[in-house]
## 1
Amino acid sequence: MTPPHDDRSDDPVALVDVLDARISVDDTLEAVASPSAGGVCLFVGVVRDHDEGREVRALAYSAHPTALQRLQEVATAVAARHPGSRLAAVHRVGPLEVGDVAVVAAASAAHRDLAFEACRDLIDTLKAEVPIWKRQHFGDGGAGWVGMP
Protein backbone atom coordinates (compact mmCIF):
# COMPACT_ATOMS: atom_id res chain seq x y z
CA MET A 1 0.00 0.00 0.00
CA THR A 2 1.29 3.47 -0.86
CA PRO A 3 1.74 5.38 2.42
CA PRO A 4 -0.86 7.99 3.38
CA HIS A 5 -0.23 11.51 2.18
CA ASP A 6 1.99 13.67 4.33
CA ASP A 7 0.81 17.31 4.59
CA ARG A 8 4.43 18.40 4.01
CA SER A 9 4.45 16.69 0.61
CA ASP A 10 3.30 18.39 -2.57
CA ASP A 11 2.01 15.10 -4.01
CA PRO A 12 -1.79 15.34 -4.34
CA VAL A 13 -2.09 11.54 -4.69
CA ALA A 14 -2.34 10.37 -1.10
CA LEU A 15 -2.93 6.65 -1.61
CA VAL A 16 -3.26 4.15 -4.43
CA ASP A 17 -3.35 0.39 -4.09
CA VAL A 18 -4.58 -2.87 -5.57
CA LEU A 19 -5.25 -5.37 -2.78
CA ASP A 20 -6.22 -9.01 -2.48
CA ALA A 21 -7.64 -8.31 0.98
CA ARG A 22 -10.46 -6.31 2.50
CA ILE A 23 -10.33 -2.55 1.78
CA SER A 24 -10.43 -0.16 4.71
CA VAL A 25 -12.81 2.66 3.84
CA ASP A 26 -11.59 4.50 6.95
CA ASP A 27 -7.94 4.31 5.87
CA THR A 28 -8.82 5.58 2.40
CA LEU A 29 -10.82 8.45 3.84
CA GLU A 30 -8.07 9.27 6.33
CA ALA A 31 -5.51 9.40 3.52
CA VAL A 32 -7.19 12.45 1.95
CA ALA A 33 -7.76 14.30 5.24
CA SER A 34 -6.26 17.75 5.36
CA PRO A 35 -6.76 20.87 7.49
CA SER A 36 -7.31 22.83 4.27
CA ALA A 37 -10.06 20.50 3.00
CA GLY A 38 -13.58 21.76 3.58
CA GLY A 39 -15.06 19.04 1.39
CA VAL A 40 -14.41 15.33 1.23
CA CYS A 41 -16.15 13.03 -1.20
CA LEU A 42 -16.08 9.25 -0.93
CA PHE A 43 -17.25 6.66 -3.45
CA VAL A 44 -17.58 3.05 -2.29
CA GLY A 45 -18.32 0.41 -4.90
CA VAL A 46 -19.81 -2.81 -3.55
CA VAL A 47 -20.69 -6.13 -5.16
CA ARG A 48 -24.40 -6.12 -5.99
CA ASP A 49 -26.69 -9.14 -6.31
CA HIS A 50 -27.66 -8.59 -9.96
CA ASP A 51 -26.38 -7.41 -13.33
CA GLU A 52 -28.42 -6.86 -16.47
CA GLY A 53 -31.36 -8.84 -15.11
CA ARG A 54 -29.33 -11.80 -13.88
CA GLU A 55 -28.70 -12.82 -10.28
CA VAL A 56 -25.05 -12.44 -9.26
CA ARG A 57 -23.84 -14.89 -6.61
CA ALA A 58 -20.19 -13.82 -6.47
CA LEU A 59 -17.42 -12.43 -8.59
CA ALA A 60 -13.68 -12.24 -8.91
CA TYR A 61 -11.52 -9.34 -10.03
CA SER A 62 -8.29 -9.95 -11.94
CA ALA A 63 -5.64 -7.32 -12.51
CA HIS A 64 -2.94 -6.98 -15.13
CA PRO A 65 0.56 -6.76 -13.58
CA THR A 66 0.64 -3.06 -14.53
CA ALA A 67 -2.64 -2.23 -12.75
CA LEU A 68 -1.03 -0.52 -9.74
CA GLN A 69 1.28 1.56 -11.93
CA ARG A 70 -1.65 2.48 -14.18
CA LEU A 71 -3.77 3.42 -11.15
CA GLN A 72 -1.00 5.77 -9.99
CA GLU A 73 -0.86 7.34 -13.45
CA VAL A 74 -4.63 7.78 -13.54
CA ALA A 75 -4.70 9.37 -10.09
CA THR A 76 -1.87 11.72 -11.04
CA ALA A 77 -3.67 12.77 -14.23
CA VAL A 78 -6.95 13.33 -12.35
CA ALA A 79 -5.13 15.40 -9.73
CA ALA A 80 -3.67 17.58 -12.48
CA ARG A 81 -7.18 18.21 -13.82
CA HIS A 82 -8.38 19.19 -10.32
CA PRO A 83 -5.75 21.46 -8.75
CA GLY A 84 -5.95 21.66 -4.99
CA SER A 85 -7.49 18.21 -4.60
CA ARG A 86 -6.04 15.27 -2.67
CA LEU A 87 -6.93 11.81 -4.00
CA ALA A 88 -6.95 8.18 -2.92
CA ALA A 89 -8.07 5.04 -4.76
CA VAL A 90 -7.97 1.39 -3.74
CA HIS A 91 -9.29 -1.54 -5.78
CA ARG A 92 -9.67 -5.09 -4.56
CA VAL A 93 -8.81 -8.19 -6.59
CA GLY A 94 -9.60 -11.85 -6.06
CA PRO A 95 -12.89 -13.46 -5.05
CA LEU A 96 -15.63 -11.25 -3.59
CA GLU A 97 -19.13 -11.95 -2.32
CA VAL A 98 -22.28 -9.86 -2.61
CA GLY A 99 -21.93 -6.87 -0.29
CA ASP A 100 -18.12 -6.82 -0.28
CA VAL A 101 -16.33 -3.53 -0.98
CA ALA A 102 -14.68 -3.73 -4.40
CA VAL A 103 -13.32 -0.21 -4.87
CA VAL A 104 -12.98 3.02 -2.90
CA ALA A 105 -12.19 6.43 -4.33
CA ALA A 106 -11.83 9.55 -2.20
CA ALA A 107 -11.12 13.19 -2.90
CA SER A 108 -10.74 16.20 -0.69
CA ALA A 109 -10.57 19.85 -1.66
CA ALA A 110 -11.17 23.28 -0.21
CA HIS A 111 -14.84 23.17 -1.28
CA ARG A 112 -17.39 20.39 -1.74
CA ASP A 113 -18.01 20.98 -5.45
CA LEU A 114 -14.30 20.50 -6.18
CA ALA A 115 -14.21 17.33 -4.08
CA PHE A 116 -17.28 15.90 -5.86
CA GLU A 117 -15.84 16.67 -9.30
CA ALA A 118 -12.44 15.16 -8.50
CA CYS A 119 -13.92 12.02 -6.94
CA ARG A 120 -16.26 11.41 -9.90
CA ASP A 121 -13.41 11.94 -12.36
CA LEU A 122 -11.19 9.57 -10.35
CA ILE A 123 -13.65 6.66 -10.21
CA ASP A 124 -14.81 7.10 -13.82
CA THR A 125 -11.25 7.25 -15.16
CA LEU A 126 -10.14 4.35 -12.96
CA LYS A 127 -12.95 2.16 -14.28
CA ALA A 128 -12.21 3.13 -17.89
CA GLU A 129 -8.42 2.94 -17.90
CA VAL A 130 -7.02 0.69 -15.16
CA PRO A 131 -6.64 -2.93 -16.36
CA ILE A 132 -8.79 -4.67 -13.76
CA TRP A 133 -11.47 -7.06 -14.98
CA LYS A 134 -14.46 -8.69 -13.34
CA ARG A 135 -15.71 -12.27 -13.80
CA GLN A 136 -19.24 -12.63 -12.44
CA HIS A 137 -20.78 -15.90 -11.32
CA PHE A 138 -24.54 -15.97 -11.89
CA GLY A 139 -27.33 -17.71 -10.04
CA ASP A 140 -28.19 -19.78 -13.13
CA GLY A 141 -24.72 -21.36 -13.07
CA GLY A 142 -23.27 -19.21 -15.84
CA ALA A 143 -20.35 -16.84 -15.65
CA GLY A 144 -19.14 -13.91 -17.68
CA TRP A 145 -16.36 -11.33 -17.93
CA VAL A 146 -16.97 -7.58 -17.65
CA GLY A 147 -14.53 -4.91 -18.81
CA MET A 148 -12.28 -7.14 -20.89
CA PRO A 149 -10.46 -5.44 -23.78
## 2
Amino acid sequence: MVQESNPDINDSIDAVIAWVDGSDRSLMEKRGFFLGINKPNRQWATQPTRFTSVNEIKYCLLTIFHFAPFIRNVFIITDGQKPDLFDDIKKFFPERLSSIRIVDHKELYSGFEEYLPTFSSRSIETMLWRIKDLSDCFVYFNDDVFLIRNVRPEDWFTGDRPVLRGKWAPIPLHKISWQYFQLLLKNVWHKLPPFFSRPSFHTGQWNSAFLLGARLKYFTYSHTPHALNKKVIEDFFIQKTDLLKKNISYRFRHPSQFTLVSISNHLQLQLGNKNVVKPDTIFFQPFGRSSNYIDRKIHQCEDNREIKSVCVQSLDLCSPGQQTKLFDWLDKVLRVNRNTNSEGGKEKREIPME
Protein backbone atom coordinates (compact mmCIF):
# COMPACT_ATOMS: atom_id res chain seq x y z
CA MET A 1 0.00 0.00 0.00
CA VAL A 2 1.50 3.34 -1.06
CA GLN A 3 1.82 5.80 1.81
CA GLU A 4 0.60 9.35 1.58
CA SER A 5 3.28 12.01 1.75
CA ASN A 6 3.31 14.70 4.41
CA PRO A 7 4.56 17.96 2.87
CA ASP A 8 5.47 19.39 6.29
CA ILE A 9 7.79 16.56 7.31
CA ASN A 10 10.88 18.45 6.08
CA ASP A 11 10.56 20.73 9.10
CA SER A 12 11.85 17.94 11.34
CA ILE A 13 14.78 16.05 9.81
CA ASP A 14 17.35 14.66 12.25
CA ALA A 15 20.84 13.28 11.71
CA VAL A 16 22.34 10.18 13.31
CA ILE A 17 26.09 9.53 13.43
CA ALA A 18 27.66 6.23 14.50
CA TRP A 19 31.00 6.76 16.25
CA VAL A 20 33.60 4.83 18.22
CA ASP A 21 37.09 5.60 19.49
CA GLY A 22 38.76 2.22 19.26
CA SER A 23 41.95 3.44 20.95
CA ASP A 24 40.10 3.92 24.25
CA ARG A 25 41.74 1.50 26.68
CA SER A 26 38.56 0.29 28.37
CA LEU A 27 36.94 -0.36 25.01
CA MET A 28 40.06 -2.17 23.76
CA GLU A 29 40.03 -4.43 26.80
CA LYS A 30 36.33 -5.16 26.40
CA ARG A 31 36.78 -5.91 22.69
CA GLY A 32 39.77 -8.13 23.42
CA PHE A 33 37.81 -10.16 25.94
CA PHE A 34 35.01 -10.90 23.49
CA LEU A 35 37.47 -11.58 20.70
CA GLY A 36 38.77 -14.45 22.77
CA ILE A 37 35.26 -15.84 23.14
CA ASN A 38 33.93 -15.30 19.63
CA LYS A 39 37.11 -15.87 17.60
CA PRO A 40 35.76 -14.04 14.53
CA ASN A 41 37.65 -13.24 11.36
CA ARG A 42 40.76 -11.50 12.68
CA GLN A 43 41.72 -10.52 9.14
CA TRP A 44 38.61 -8.43 8.55
CA ALA A 45 35.82 -7.97 11.06
CA THR A 46 38.23 -7.08 13.87
CA GLN A 47 40.83 -5.00 12.08
CA PRO A 48 41.82 -2.05 14.33
CA THR A 49 41.08 0.41 11.52
CA ARG A 50 37.40 -0.50 11.83
CA PHE A 51 37.40 1.11 15.28
CA THR A 52 40.15 3.74 15.17
CA SER A 53 39.28 7.44 15.11
CA VAL A 54 41.31 10.50 14.09
CA ASN A 55 38.36 12.66 15.15
CA GLU A 56 36.80 12.68 11.69
CA ILE A 57 33.45 13.08 13.41
CA LYS A 58 34.29 16.71 14.14
CA TYR A 59 34.29 17.48 10.42
CA CYS A 60 31.23 15.31 9.88
CA LEU A 61 29.32 17.45 12.37
CA LEU A 62 30.74 20.80 11.24
CA THR A 63 29.80 20.08 7.64
CA ILE A 64 26.27 19.06 8.64
CA PHE A 65 25.70 22.31 10.51
CA HIS A 66 27.29 24.36 7.75
CA PHE A 67 25.76 22.75 4.65
CA ALA A 68 22.51 21.35 6.09
CA PRO A 69 21.45 23.95 8.68
CA PHE A 70 17.84 22.69 8.53
CA ILE A 71 18.86 19.53 10.44
CA ARG A 72 16.93 19.65 13.71
CA ASN A 73 18.90 17.39 16.07
CA VAL A 74 22.06 15.30 15.78
CA PHE A 75 22.25 12.03 17.69
CA ILE A 76 25.76 10.56 18.14
CA ILE A 77 25.78 6.83 18.91
CA THR A 78 28.57 5.72 21.27
CA ASP A 79 29.55 3.01 23.71
CA GLY A 80 30.10 5.02 26.88
CA GLN A 81 32.33 7.54 25.08
CA LYS A 82 32.28 11.24 24.25
CA PRO A 83 33.87 12.64 21.07
CA ASP A 84 36.25 15.58 21.26
CA LEU A 85 34.23 18.06 19.22
CA PHE A 86 32.28 20.29 21.57
CA ASP A 87 34.91 23.06 21.74
CA ASP A 88 34.74 23.45 17.96
CA ILE A 89 30.95 23.43 17.93
CA LYS A 90 30.89 25.96 20.75
CA LYS A 91 33.27 28.18 18.79
CA PHE A 92 31.61 27.98 15.38
CA PHE A 93 27.99 26.97 16.03
CA PRO A 94 27.24 27.80 19.68
CA GLU A 95 23.54 27.92 18.96
CA ARG A 96 23.66 24.25 17.92
CA LEU A 97 25.17 22.81 21.11
CA SER A 98 21.74 22.03 22.53
CA SER A 99 20.79 20.10 19.39
CA ILE A 100 23.54 17.49 19.91
CA ARG A 101 22.80 14.43 22.05
CA ILE A 102 25.10 11.53 22.87
CA VAL A 103 23.14 8.26 22.72
CA ASP A 104 24.65 5.28 24.50
CA HIS A 105 24.26 1.74 23.17
CA LYS A 106 22.25 0.97 26.32
CA GLU A 107 19.47 3.26 25.10
CA LEU A 108 19.31 1.55 21.72
CA TYR A 109 19.36 -1.91 23.31
CA SER A 110 16.87 -1.26 26.09
CA GLY A 111 15.09 -4.58 26.54
CA PHE A 112 17.81 -6.33 24.50
CA GLU A 113 20.71 -5.86 26.93
CA GLU A 114 21.88 -9.48 26.56
CA TYR A 115 23.27 -8.53 23.12
CA LEU A 116 25.64 -5.93 24.57
CA PRO A 117 28.43 -5.13 24.24
CA THR A 118 28.54 -5.14 20.48
CA PHE A 119 31.32 -4.17 18.08
CA SER A 120 29.43 -4.71 14.84
CA SER A 121 28.26 -1.60 13.04
CA ARG A 122 25.55 -3.68 11.35
CA SER A 123 24.18 -4.76 14.72
CA ILE A 124 24.18 -1.17 15.99
CA GLU A 125 22.56 0.21 12.82
CA THR A 126 19.74 -2.30 13.16
CA MET A 127 18.67 -0.48 16.36
CA LEU A 128 18.91 3.17 15.23
CA TRP A 129 15.13 3.53 14.96
CA ARG A 130 14.91 3.05 18.75
CA ILE A 131 16.58 6.40 19.56
CA LYS A 132 14.30 8.38 21.85
CA ASP A 133 12.73 11.48 20.26
CA LEU A 134 14.18 10.65 16.84
CA SER A 135 12.23 12.23 13.98
CA ASP A 136 10.36 9.97 11.56
CA CYS A 137 12.65 11.41 8.88
CA PHE A 138 16.35 11.09 9.64
CA VAL A 139 19.66 10.89 7.79
CA TYR A 140 22.26 8.34 8.84
CA PHE A 141 25.96 9.21 8.59
CA ASN A 142 29.07 7.21 9.28
CA ASP A 143 31.60 9.44 11.03
CA ASP A 144 33.87 9.42 7.95
CA VAL A 145 31.21 10.97 5.69
CA PHE A 146 31.37 14.74 5.11
CA LEU A 147 29.15 17.17 3.25
CA ILE A 148 31.02 19.46 0.87
CA ARG A 149 28.17 21.49 -0.68
CA ASN A 150 24.83 22.90 0.36
CA VAL A 151 22.08 20.32 0.79
CA ARG A 152 18.33 20.98 0.69
CA PRO A 153 15.71 18.96 2.57
CA GLU A 154 14.37 17.72 -0.78
CA ASP A 155 17.78 16.21 -1.56
CA TRP A 156 16.97 13.66 1.15
CA PHE A 157 13.18 13.59 1.42
CA THR A 158 10.12 14.16 -0.73
CA GLY A 159 7.45 14.61 1.90
CA ASP A 160 8.10 11.74 4.29
CA ARG A 161 9.58 9.47 1.63
CA PRO A 162 13.36 9.11 1.57
CA VAL A 163 15.26 9.88 -1.62
CA LEU A 164 16.98 6.60 -2.51
CA ARG A 165 20.48 7.09 -3.90
CA GLY A 166 21.67 4.04 -5.75
CA LYS A 167 20.89 1.71 -8.62
CA TRP A 168 19.62 -1.78 -9.42
CA ALA A 169 22.32 -4.40 -9.83
CA PRO A 170 22.38 -8.16 -10.50
CA ILE A 171 22.91 -10.54 -7.59
CA PRO A 172 26.61 -10.38 -6.45
CA LEU A 173 26.97 -14.00 -7.53
CA HIS A 174 30.78 -14.11 -7.56
CA LYS A 175 30.99 -13.02 -3.90
CA ILE A 176 28.25 -15.38 -2.75
CA SER A 177 29.60 -18.32 -4.75
CA TRP A 178 33.12 -17.90 -3.37
CA GLN A 179 31.73 -17.75 0.16
CA TYR A 180 29.73 -20.97 -0.20
CA PHE A 181 32.59 -22.74 -2.00
CA GLN A 182 34.92 -22.08 0.91
CA LEU A 183 32.32 -23.22 3.42
CA LEU A 184 31.73 -26.40 1.41
CA LEU A 185 35.47 -27.05 1.20
CA LYS A 186 35.75 -26.67 4.96
CA ASN A 187 32.92 -29.16 5.52
CA VAL A 188 34.58 -31.71 3.23
CA TRP A 189 38.13 -31.24 4.55
CA HIS A 190 37.83 -30.83 8.30
CA LYS A 191 41.57 -30.24 8.78
CA LEU A 192 41.26 -26.82 7.22
CA PRO A 193 41.61 -23.95 9.69
CA PRO A 194 38.41 -22.15 10.73
CA PHE A 195 37.00 -20.20 7.81
CA PHE A 196 35.32 -16.83 8.12
CA SER A 197 34.03 -15.23 4.95
CA ARG A 198 34.56 -11.51 4.53
CA PRO A 199 31.32 -9.70 5.50
CA SER A 200 31.50 -7.44 2.47
CA PHE A 201 29.60 -4.24 1.80
CA HIS A 202 27.59 -5.74 -1.05
CA THR A 203 26.79 -9.13 0.47
CA GLY A 204 25.26 -7.32 3.44
CA GLN A 205 23.02 -5.44 1.04
CA TRP A 206 22.15 -8.59 -0.87
CA ASN A 207 21.23 -10.38 2.39
CA SER A 208 18.72 -7.59 3.04
CA ALA A 209 17.23 -7.77 -0.45
CA PHE A 210 16.96 -11.56 -0.30
CA LEU A 211 15.08 -11.38 3.01
CA LEU A 212 12.55 -9.11 1.31
CA GLY A 213 12.01 -11.39 -1.66
CA ALA A 214 14.73 -10.40 -4.16
CA ARG A 215 16.20 -13.25 -6.17
CA LEU A 216 17.92 -11.92 -9.31
CA LYS A 217 18.72 -8.29 -8.54
CA TYR A 218 18.95 -5.83 -5.66
CA PHE A 219 19.05 -2.08 -5.10
CA THR A 220 22.61 -1.17 -4.19
CA TYR A 221 23.89 2.01 -2.56
CA SER A 222 27.29 3.58 -1.91
CA HIS A 223 29.00 5.28 1.05
CA THR A 224 26.81 8.35 1.37
CA PRO A 225 24.40 9.98 3.85
CA HIS A 226 21.34 7.72 3.96
CA ALA A 227 17.79 9.08 4.25
CA LEU A 228 15.51 6.80 6.28
CA ASN A 229 11.92 6.78 7.50
CA LYS A 230 11.76 5.58 11.10
CA LYS A 231 8.08 4.60 11.05
CA VAL A 232 8.48 2.20 8.12
CA ILE A 233 11.51 0.55 9.76
CA GLU A 234 9.83 0.37 13.16
CA ASP A 235 6.70 -1.27 11.73
CA PHE A 236 8.85 -3.86 9.98
CA PHE A 237 10.92 -4.87 13.01
CA ILE A 238 7.95 -4.93 15.39
CA GLN A 239 6.60 -7.71 13.16
CA LYS A 240 10.04 -9.33 12.66
CA THR A 241 11.46 -9.43 16.20
CA ASP A 242 13.18 -12.77 15.62
CA LEU A 243 14.91 -11.35 12.56
CA LEU A 244 16.05 -8.33 14.56
CA LYS A 245 17.39 -10.51 17.37
CA LYS A 246 19.29 -12.67 14.90
CA ASN A 247 21.00 -9.67 13.30
CA ILE A 248 22.02 -8.05 16.60
CA SER A 249 23.23 -11.35 18.08
CA TYR A 250 26.60 -10.96 16.36
CA ARG A 251 29.07 -8.97 18.45
CA PHE A 252 31.36 -8.61 15.44
CA ARG A 253 30.40 -8.07 11.80
CA HIS A 254 29.33 -11.35 10.25
CA PRO A 255 28.74 -12.40 6.59
CA SER A 256 25.13 -13.40 7.27
CA GLN A 257 24.09 -10.01 8.62
CA PHE A 258 21.84 -7.64 6.69
CA THR A 259 22.20 -3.87 6.58
CA LEU A 260 19.55 -1.50 7.91
CA VAL A 261 19.90 0.90 4.97
CA SER A 262 19.28 -1.85 2.43
CA ILE A 263 16.28 -3.13 4.40
CA SER A 264 14.90 0.42 4.44
CA ASN A 265 15.54 0.99 0.73
CA HIS A 266 13.84 -2.22 -0.34
CA LEU A 267 10.88 -1.59 1.97
CA GLN A 268 10.50 1.86 0.43
CA LEU A 269 10.59 0.43 -3.07
CA GLN A 270 7.94 -2.16 -2.16
CA LEU A 271 5.77 0.68 -0.80
CA GLY A 272 5.94 2.42 -4.16
CA ASN A 273 8.65 4.98 -3.45
CA LYS A 274 9.87 6.16 -6.85
CA ASN A 275 12.32 8.79 -5.54
CA VAL A 276 15.38 7.05 -6.99
CA VAL A 277 18.38 9.14 -8.04
CA LYS A 278 22.04 8.52 -8.74
CA PRO A 279 24.62 8.85 -5.93
CA ASP A 280 26.09 12.32 -5.36
CA THR A 281 29.18 11.23 -3.46
CA ILE A 282 32.85 10.39 -4.08
CA PHE A 283 34.64 7.63 -2.17
CA PHE A 284 38.19 8.19 -0.88
CA GLN A 285 40.40 5.27 0.16
CA PRO A 286 43.81 6.95 0.34
CA PHE A 287 45.86 4.40 2.29
CA GLY A 288 48.48 2.70 0.14
CA ARG A 289 47.72 4.85 -2.89
CA SER A 290 49.97 7.06 -5.00
CA SER A 291 51.20 10.39 -3.66
CA ASN A 292 48.73 12.36 -5.79
CA TYR A 293 45.68 10.20 -5.00
CA ILE A 294 44.09 12.68 -2.57
CA ASP A 295 44.78 15.59 -4.94
CA ARG A 296 43.06 13.75 -7.81
CA LYS A 297 40.02 12.97 -5.68
CA ILE A 298 39.81 16.57 -4.50
CA HIS A 299 39.93 17.79 -8.11
CA GLN A 300 37.06 15.42 -8.95
CA CYS A 301 34.99 16.96 -6.16
CA GLU A 302 35.82 20.50 -7.19
CA ASP A 303 35.17 19.88 -10.89
CA ASN A 304 31.80 18.17 -10.42
CA ARG A 305 29.28 20.52 -8.81
CA GLU A 306 26.83 17.62 -8.42
CA ILE A 307 28.98 16.02 -5.73
CA LYS A 308 27.62 16.91 -2.31
CA SER A 309 29.39 14.49 0.02
CA VAL A 310 32.53 12.41 0.36
CA CYS A 311 33.45 9.33 2.35
CA VAL A 312 37.09 8.96 3.44
CA GLN A 313 37.82 5.44 4.64
CA SER A 314 40.68 4.29 6.91
CA LEU A 315 42.20 7.75 7.27
CA ASP A 316 43.85 6.51 10.46
CA LEU A 317 46.18 4.33 8.36
CA CYS A 318 47.41 7.31 6.34
CA SER A 319 50.50 9.38 7.08
CA PRO A 320 50.17 12.61 9.10
CA GLY A 321 50.87 14.48 5.85
CA GLN A 322 47.97 12.78 4.07
CA GLN A 323 45.65 13.43 6.99
CA THR A 324 46.64 17.10 7.09
CA LYS A 325 46.08 17.47 3.34
CA LEU A 326 42.58 16.06 3.64
CA PHE A 327 41.65 18.13 6.70
CA ASP A 328 43.14 21.28 5.15
CA TRP A 329 40.88 20.76 2.16
CA LEU A 330 37.84 20.28 4.39
CA ASP A 331 38.82 23.50 6.20
CA LYS A 332 38.84 25.22 2.84
CA VAL A 333 35.48 23.70 1.91
CA LEU A 334 34.11 25.03 5.19
CA ARG A 335 35.86 28.38 4.58
CA VAL A 336 37.85 27.87 7.76
CA ASN A 337 40.94 30.05 8.23
CA ARG A 338 43.89 28.57 10.09
CA ASN A 339 45.68 31.23 12.08
CA THR A 340 48.11 31.11 14.94
CA ASN A 341 46.71 32.61 18.11
CA SER A 342 49.05 35.07 19.78
CA GLU A 343 48.22 33.49 23.13
CA GLY A 344 50.25 30.31 23.45
CA GLY A 345 50.46 29.66 19.72
CA LYS A 346 47.18 27.78 19.73
CA GLU A 347 45.33 27.19 16.51
CA LYS A 348 42.39 29.49 15.92
CA ARG A 349 39.67 28.84 13.35
CA GLU A 350 37.01 31.18 12.17
CA ILE A 351 34.08 30.25 9.94
CA PRO A 352 32.53 33.24 8.17
CA MET A 353 28.79 32.62 8.57
CA GLU A 354 27.45 35.35 6.29
## 3
Amino acid sequence: MTRTRGYAAAAARAAIAPFSFDRREPRASDVAIDIEYCGICHSDIHKARDEWGGSIFPMVPGHDIACDVEVVSIRDVNECWERVMKSDVRYRFVIDMATLKDQP
Protein backbone atom coordinates (compact mmCIF):
# COMPACT_ATOMS: atom_id res chain seq x y z
CA MET A 1 0.00 0.00 0.00
CA THR A 2 1.09 3.54 -0.75
CA ARG A 3 0.17 6.40 1.53
CA THR A 4 -1.58 9.01 -0.63
CA ARG A 5 -2.72 12.55 0.04
CA GLY A 6 -5.94 14.03 -1.24
CA TYR A 7 -8.96 15.95 -0.03
CA ALA A 8 -11.97 14.44 1.71
CA ALA A 9 -15.19 15.27 3.47
CA ALA A 10 -15.24 13.74 6.96
CA ALA A 11 -19.03 14.19 7.25
CA ALA A 12 -21.94 15.59 5.23
CA ARG A 13 -21.63 19.06 6.78
CA ALA A 14 -17.82 19.10 6.95
CA ALA A 15 -15.66 21.14 4.62
CA ILE A 16 -13.46 19.26 2.18
CA ALA A 17 -10.02 19.18 3.79
CA PRO A 18 -6.61 17.51 3.35
CA PHE A 19 -6.78 13.76 3.95
CA SER A 20 -4.35 10.83 3.77
CA PHE A 21 -5.33 7.31 2.75
CA ASP A 22 -3.77 4.03 1.62
CA ARG A 23 -3.86 3.15 -2.07
CA ARG A 24 -3.06 -0.33 -3.33
CA GLU A 25 0.09 -0.81 -5.37
CA PRO A 26 -0.38 -0.68 -9.17
CA ARG A 27 -0.93 -4.05 -10.81
CA ALA A 28 0.69 -5.17 -14.06
CA SER A 29 -2.44 -4.20 -16.00
CA ASP A 30 -2.65 -0.71 -14.40
CA VAL A 31 -1.18 2.47 -15.78
CA ALA A 32 0.52 4.66 -13.19
CA ILE A 33 0.28 8.37 -13.92
CA ASP A 34 1.21 11.53 -12.07
CA ILE A 35 -1.83 13.75 -11.66
CA GLU A 36 -0.95 17.42 -11.57
CA TYR A 37 -4.52 18.67 -11.20
CA CYS A 38 -7.84 17.05 -10.38
CA GLY A 39 -11.19 18.76 -10.15
CA ILE A 40 -14.47 18.05 -8.42
CA CYS A 41 -17.73 18.28 -10.37
CA HIS A 42 -21.16 19.21 -9.07
CA SER A 43 -22.25 15.58 -8.67
CA ASP A 44 -19.25 14.97 -6.39
CA ILE A 45 -20.39 17.82 -4.14
CA HIS A 46 -23.96 16.46 -3.94
CA LYS A 47 -22.57 13.05 -2.98
CA ALA A 48 -20.12 14.54 -0.44
CA ARG A 49 -23.00 16.48 1.17
CA ASP A 50 -25.06 13.25 1.27
CA GLU A 51 -27.87 15.04 -0.57
CA TRP A 52 -28.77 11.82 -2.40
CA GLY A 53 -28.30 9.56 0.63
CA GLY A 54 -26.06 6.54 1.03
CA SER A 55 -22.76 8.41 1.27
CA ILE A 56 -19.97 6.74 3.26
CA PHE A 57 -17.51 8.95 5.13
CA PRO A 58 -14.74 9.91 4.99
CA MET A 59 -15.33 10.48 1.29
CA VAL A 60 -12.72 11.48 -1.27
CA PRO A 61 -14.84 13.10 -3.99
CA GLY A 62 -13.72 12.81 -7.57
CA HIS A 63 -13.79 10.49 -10.51
CA ASP A 64 -11.47 7.58 -11.18
CA ILE A 65 -10.19 7.42 -14.72
CA ALA A 66 -10.08 3.81 -15.77
CA CYS A 67 -8.96 2.65 -19.17
CA ASP A 68 -6.48 0.32 -20.81
CA VAL A 69 -3.67 2.08 -22.61
CA GLU A 70 -1.38 0.80 -25.35
CA VAL A 71 1.74 2.87 -25.90
CA VAL A 72 2.71 2.89 -29.57
CA SER A 73 5.51 4.24 -31.70
CA ILE A 74 4.85 7.14 -34.04
CA ARG A 75 5.66 4.67 -36.83
CA ASP A 76 2.50 2.70 -35.94
CA VAL A 77 0.04 5.61 -36.01
CA ASN A 78 -1.50 4.69 -39.38
CA GLU A 79 -2.03 1.07 -38.32
CA CYS A 80 -3.60 2.28 -35.06
CA TRP A 81 -5.94 4.60 -36.96
CA GLU A 82 -7.02 1.71 -39.20
CA ARG A 83 -7.83 -0.32 -36.10
CA VAL A 84 -9.87 2.57 -34.68
CA MET A 85 -11.85 2.81 -37.92
CA LYS A 86 -12.56 -0.96 -37.78
CA SER A 87 -13.67 -0.70 -34.12
CA ASP A 88 -10.83 -3.09 -33.27
CA VAL A 89 -9.73 -1.19 -30.17
CA ARG A 90 -10.63 -2.03 -26.58
CA TYR A 91 -8.43 0.67 -25.08
CA ARG A 92 -6.67 3.92 -25.83
CA PHE A 93 -3.58 4.39 -27.90
CA VAL A 94 -0.91 6.72 -26.55
CA ILE A 95 1.92 7.76 -28.83
CA ASP A 96 5.34 7.49 -27.25
CA MET A 97 6.61 10.98 -28.06
CA ALA A 98 10.22 9.83 -27.67
CA THR A 99 9.74 7.95 -30.95
CA LEU A 100 9.32 11.23 -32.84
CA LYS A 101 13.09 11.58 -32.96
CA ASP A 102 13.18 8.31 -34.98
CA GLN A 103 11.41 10.01 -37.88
CA PRO A 104 13.32 11.44 -40.87
